[in-house]
Amino acid sequence: MKKITLKGIAWDHPRGYQPLRATSETFKQLHPEVDILWDIRSLKEFGDMPIEDLIEVYDLITIDHPYMGQANANNLLLPLDKLIPRHSLEKLKEESIGPSYQSYYYNGNLYAIAVDAAALVAAFREDLILKLGLNIPKTRAELLDFYKKIPSSHMVAWPLCATDLWCTFLTLCAQDGGRDFIKDKTIENRLGIQVLDELKIHLEYLHHESINWNPIQILNRMAEKNEILYSPFLFGYTNYSRLGYAKNLVKFGNSPTNPNIEVSTILGGVGLAISAHSEHQDMAAAYINYVAKAETQEGIYTKNGGQPGNLKAWQNQGNNTLCNNFFASTMDTMNKAYVRPQHKGWNKFQEQGADLLHNGLVKNIPSDTIMKKLNQLYQSF
To answer: Keyword Nucleotidyltransferase: yes or no (predicted)?
Structure first.
């Protein structure tokens, strides 16, 4: 029997690598000739590192959906619809949570399968909220009211480092302008100014480190200390809602919205793709199909700290019990999530645009100036 070694690149959080390592072991039981080795990269590298830097080394690549246009234009990834049986893909499409499955389609090709699903959601310390007699805000107007009811011993935090500020900015634009607020490589100017002005108001009420933090830093802080009791927009992590993961349990729910428009928050999550340079594409495809199917996602994937991309795993009562109803409590947000553009150049614009926005907020640059620079940057790609 000829041995096959597949190399994969995951991202640096137990949610990112534990379920992939666990499913690789069970896949090996079905295919004893296959070893799958996983390296990890940082969360920022996951969002920003060009695929071109990975495809020479790795067979299996965890990827964000905005890279699909780049992958298509430069033939970086293999179309999975040519490697995975149609009946399997139709089943996975039916079992998608929200737009996760569809988000990895580009130009008629499916370049990855969503094995992990996420969107911006709200995180809170239920014990502190109940003790203080507070109600979780359902709308952004209620959120502004919520700040004023919190005693000085507690705080609200948003992850607003450049990457996460970008996701929040696009979320608020979509909530107020609908899904088509970006046209012809232009973000609607008046809308962008309005959202930036609102973000500046929120900043006055937030923990001062919010402008530097990512979701993991806030969730770690929420779980270990009693200072931060609520975060309205961050990418959820089921790990923190599982007993024993951290000192205190963090619960999750739907983010505040604009009740006038049927959009929740920005879609995140992770797709599993195959490098165009892989010498073992059939086996890599077999592994992706195995990881993505409902049985694996409901069971070993979720049990090993994963945040599955399969709807059946989200509906599974055992998984909801395990994760303090994380899945049931955030499903509405997932189903109404906003999907970012995927055209070639978007990922580079996203990285540079995030830095531009962040610099603008840190230096309190006028919102109209920020928007002018942002759209000029967009037009350059």
So the answer is: no
**Cα dihedral 102/105/110/112 (nearest 10):** -70
Read off the pLDDT of residues 143-172 as tens digits, 9 standing for 90 and up.
999 999 999 999 999 999 999 999 999 999
pLDDT, tens only, 223-274: 999 999 999 999 999 999 999 999 999 999 999 999 999 999 999 999 999 9
- State the DSSP H helix or E strand holding residue 110, giving kind and residue range, or none if neither: strand 109-110
State how far the Cα of 270 lies from the Cα of 182, in Å rounded to an integer.
23
Q: How many CB atoms lie within 10 A of CB 145?
A: 12
Every domain of the chain and the residues it spans: 4-117+268-326, 120-266+345-379
- Quote the CA–CA distance of 68 and 112 in Å, as a whole number: 9
- The helix (run of H) or strand (run of E) holding residue 32 is none
Q: Which two tokens stand for residue 103?
A: 């988000």
User: Using CA atoms, how far apart are residues 356 and 162, in angstroms rounded to an integer?
Assistant: 8
Is the fold of 4-117+268-326 the same as that of 120-266+345-379?
A: yes
d(CA 10, CA 61): 7
Question: CATH homologous superfamily of domain 120-266+345-379?
Answer: Periplasmic binding protein-like II (3.40.190.10)
Superfamily of domain 4-117+268-326: Periplasmic binding protein-like II (3.40.190.10)
Instruction: Give the integer Cα–Cα distance in Å for 273 and 114.
Output: 9
Q: pTM for this structure?
A: 0.95
Q: Collect all residues with Cβ–Cβ distance below 8 Å to 132 and sequence separation of at least 6.
A: 150, 151, 154, 229
**Euclidean distance between CA atoms 55 and 278, whole angstroms:** 8
